[in-house]
Amino acid sequence: MRRSFVKPAFGLAALLLALLAAARAEAASLPETIAAVWPKVVKIYGAGGVGDLEPYSTGFFVTAEGHVATVWNHVLDAERVTVVLNDGRRFEARLTGAEPTLDLAILKLESDQGNFPHFDLEDFADVSPGTRVLAFSNMFGIAAGDEPVSVVHGVIAAKTPLAARRGVYQTTYRGQVYVIDAVTNNSGAGGGVVTTWDGRLVGMIGKELRNAQSNTWVNYAIPASELASMARQIITGQFESTASRRKEPRNPRRFDPLDFGIVLVPDVVLRTPAYVDAVLPGSPAAEAGLKPDDLIVFVNGELVQSCRALKNAFGWLEPGERLRLTIRRGNRLMEMELKAPPQ
Amino acid sequence: MIQTPAKGSRSQAPRDRRPPDYALEPRLCLTSRSVRAIAAVALTAVLAAPVAGVGPVPSLRAAVAPQVLQAQKQRIETIRRIAPSVVAIFARGAAGGGSGVLVTPDGFALTNFHVVAAAGSFMKCGLNDGNLYDAVIVGVDPTGDVALIKLLGRDDFPCAELGDSDTVHVGDWVFALGNPFLLATDFQPTVTYGMVSGVHRYQYPAGTVLEYADCIQVDASINPGNSGGPLFDSRGLLIGINGRISTGKRGRVNSGVGYAISINQIKNFWDHLRSGRIVDHATLGATVRTQSDGTIIVDSILETSDAYRRGLRLGDEIVSFAQRPIRSVNQFKNILGIFPQGWKVPLVYRRDGRKHPIVVRLERLHKDSSFARRRRPVVPPHGRRPRRPSPDRPQPKSKPPDHSPQPDGQPRRLPFPIPRHPAKPPPIPEKYKHLYVEKDGFANFYFNQVEQDRLTQALRELGDFLQPAGPWRLSGQDGTGKRFELTVTNQAVGLEWGEEAFYLDGAASEVQDEPPASGGFLVAMSHWRQLLALGPKSFTECYYLGSEPLDATDVRVDVLVTLQGSIETHWYFRRDPDRLVGFDTWLAPHVDPCEVRFDRFQETDGRRWPEALRVRHGDSDFATFRVKEIKLGPK
Q1: CA nearest A83 in B: which residue?
Q2: Helices B20-31 and B66-82, axial angle in degrees (round to 10)
């Protein structure tokens, strides 16, 4: 509208004006975005209340009929849970289905109403690092009754697999996550939403996860792209949980220390230190300079506390991958590098 | 770390001063997440290159969209404007500290109660001009976690402009300034930038006090040491005082959830704080609960409460309170939390489908003994037993631990003014010693005396009522045309009213409601004469209370309290100029007072008298006495 009045000669000024107007429009629309998202986010009250397990969490509507997506956690360990909307209305809800590998659960409100404001599972935003986002959640259970949930702002810092380093995070989820540069994953925030500044669904705030190595907490969301299809399957009833068929990923046992000419001491106790008993002459290990009585401490930077852990680490090696060993010989730490043979 | 000034109140900061813009901007870059975020977005969009390893600054500036630079410039300007009002508080003897903000040019500054509770009566305050000032405690509000202090030595302090916290919206951008981790040893405040995450939040008391009602929740970083510091909106208006955070499992630092006491609450308490008292919060004398249909009903009510006398009963539905609709227990508590004890607040309740509007006088929350005997109430340890949350009250305030910062001297918790090695505090400067007067029930009685003196002066300006010492005879007609003559002496009061006559003997030990159903009009008249003739100090006890809206109207009046035996009177003074406009006299606790209001004034022999005395008691008008003639007799 405004631009049509501007002569082309003033194109640059017009562009600037338009940019400023856009900036203003965006700034003005932030509370509007928040107001539009709030009715789609719900507070969930269920099991818990002992120890570190808070009896509340967050969820969001994914259908007009009252299906709520949330994080699969202890709060749902009850026959029914209570769902409270941002206007204070309260409903009982039952679990429709859950997919533990996605940390996803779908609830259905016990209501015949068919007009709940909801996120469209077909219309999510796939965003890249640097995108500004909003996170909505019932963190710490601050929002009571008809109070709307808390909103914090942040920036997508990375999109990355969470379990890149095995054993760091205690979660069954193995896919990509959005890492956010703000504290989004507080107690009770799980099941909340991360949206763009114009209110499009980006992902679901995951449950609280602590990095076992650094003792830090990660702020992340499971991308909507990972959840959408499973959520639809659960809602439409064409769902078969992978929980029954899923198994821990088996160690492929691709390599063994012997493949490199390393003979370990006999593995006699639960945590036998990974001492080298012998090195086969002419083997890659011999060429790299490994000697009997060396203690292997790290494999590719990961601590190995036992013969078993060492064998496990070797089992995961890819053909042709470089293998970096840190060993202790006497009081010295030494680094040496070997290469896994091609298959 | 903090050096005491050798002489006077002003001294240079112990470190070399840096130019202010240099000092501020690096902090901005470091702390303003959004500045970086916007820059990052613009960079990736325009340069299509990773942020790290981008060329020198000039090319970077060229790549940033002009409106981003403009927004940044505005933020820098705002911070430059507001930073001088921010106070870095250090307890004397370097025993801890916190933050504060100046709100008047003569040095009144706001902070948290839990900051001054640790710091004591005098403290050292640094401003970003690099100077260290002496400051004295003025008043405290332990329940609201607010304290007023006064910086000394100047009458032209930079001060913050107050905003309206009721217009704050979720999504608004805010600045938190302060002294986190007591980093501001050069007195330059740390700036953190963030978003309003929630408004009208209620946070249960940590222990018996430190209740955060109707507070503002922000995601700007608030850390130990930020306590008492200002929260500004994007225009640089003061909208709150930061003081509390939620943390959970991550340890006692920012987790994206900070709470600020709303500035509108502090505006209500402002004169109460200036009174030098230990200020109390209010209760309705009733508790409420949510019913299954979502309505809020009276769950219990004290028969001694004003609410009960106004007609509120068990089971009544609370429709609105202070003109705000009530849909949750939290909202009810939010409203109770923002008013001082004694204020009259409109309330609407529903019974049998009918709405009843009433005006309720709020009762005190704590017993006198809770605060009177100790100037620094001890904050109890870790809060109350965790309660199982429900959708109505889903806030287990002890779990996750909701850290309200503890005063110093309680080593069991990481205190939220951070402790330093306590040393022997340096002596209080001789020239400021008179600014602190200790008295039970007061944070600093000196400031109460200042206000008493002001109102006493206003009374003197009404004229000399000490002489002549004989009876006052006020006569005229009441609103119905009935004649009256009121006689007031130093010992007794008599009222001839139409066919009836009433008499009060001042020597009688029993106080009486005379005329009946007036609430004690004759007693009130006797006290009025005492106030005018002998002054407020002639009563057993006298203090300045603060201010309140007169009869729940828009008129703010100063309140002077006098006590004589069991009889308490509140004297109301309008401002500009100060003049007495009425008073309430209570014959006993838990009864309705006799309310006397003055209409206009007439001058007789150099004395100003009211033209009419309007008398109310309970829910009804008692009488209006129009004074036509005034005679003062000799002794």
Answers
A1: B391
A2: 120
Per-residue pLDDT tens digits for B234-252: 999 999 999 999 887 777 7
B531-551 tens-digit pLDDT: 999 999 999 999 999 999 999
Minimum Cα–Cα distance from B44: chain A residue: A130
C-alpha R_g of chain A: 26
Beta bridge partners, B99, equal B88
- pLDDT digit string (tens) for B327-359? 899 999 999 999 999 999 999 999 999 999 999
For residue A205, the cross-strand partners are: A221
**Phi-psi region for residue A149, left (φ > 0), alpha (ψ -120 to 50) or beta?**
beta
pLDDT in tens, A276-327: 999 999 898 999 999 999 999 999 888 888 898 898 888 888 888 888 999 9
Neighbouring CB atoms inside 10 A of B255's CB total 25
- pLDDT over threshold 70, residue B420: no
Number of other CB atoms surrounding residue A123 within 10 Å = 10
Topology of the domain comprising B1-31+65-280+387-443: Thrombin, subunit H (2.40.10)
CB B172 within 8 A of CB B234: yes
Q: Which amino acids of B are annotated catalytic?
A: 114, 145, 227
Q: Is B186 in CB contact (< 8 Å) with chain A?
A: no
Report which DSSP code applies to B7: S
Using the beta-carbon criterion (under 8 Å), do A152 and B195 form an inter-chain contact?
Answer: yes
Question: What does the block give as tokens for B490?
Answer: 């130093």
From CA B280, how far away is CA B372, in angstroms rounded?
Answer: 11
User: Candidates 3.40.50.300, 2.30.42.10, 3.90.76.10, 2.60.40.1120; correct CATH number of B282-364?
Assistant: 2.30.42.10
Q: Which of B171, B328, B399 sits opposite A31 (nearest CB)?
A: B171
Residue B50 in tokens: 């990773």
Backbone angles phi, psi at A63, to 5 degrees: -140, 160
The per-residue pLDDT of chain B, averaged, comes to 82
Helix, strand or coil, per DSSP, at residue B359: strand
DSSP string, B251-309: -SS--S-EEEEEHHHHHHHHHHHHTTBB--BEE-SEEEEE-TTS-EEEEEE-TTSHHHH
Q: What is the residue extent of each domain of chain A?
A: 39-109, 132-236, 257-339
Report CB contact under 8 Å: A19, B65: yes
Homologous superfamily assigned to A132-236? Trypsin-like serine proteases (2.40.10.10)
Residue B246 near chain A (CB below 8 Å): yes
Cβ of B385 under 8 Å from any chain A Cβ? no
The pLDDT assigned to B371 comes to 55
Taking CB atoms and an 8 Å cutoff, what residues of chain A touch B390?
45
Counting other chains too, the contacts that A158-165 makes at CB distance below 8 Å and 24 or more residues apart are A158/A129, A159/A127, A159/A128, A159/A129, A159/A223, A162/A209, A162/A218, A162/A220, A165/A213, A165/A302
C-alpha angle A303-A181-A50 in degrees, rounded to nearest 5 = 75
Q: Which of A148, A183, A210 sits opposite B255 (nearest CB)?
A: A183
Residue B475 token pair = 């006569």
Could you tell me the pLDDT band of residue B64, with boundaries at 50, 70 and 90?
confident
User: Is B456-632 assigned to CATH 2.60.40?
Assistant: no
Q: At the topology level of CATH, where does A257-339 sit?
A: Pdz3 Domain (2.30.42)
Q: How confident is the model at residue A35 (pLDDT cuts 50, 70, 90)?
A: very high
Q: Which residues of chain B are in CATH 2.30.42.10 domains?
A: 282-364
Answer yes or no: is the ipTM higher than 0.90: no
* Most confident residue range from A100-109, B24-33, B87-96: A100-109
Residue B434 is encoded by which pair of tokens?
């008179």
Distance CA B197, CA A29 (A): 16
Pairing mode, strands A176-180 and A209-210 = unpaired
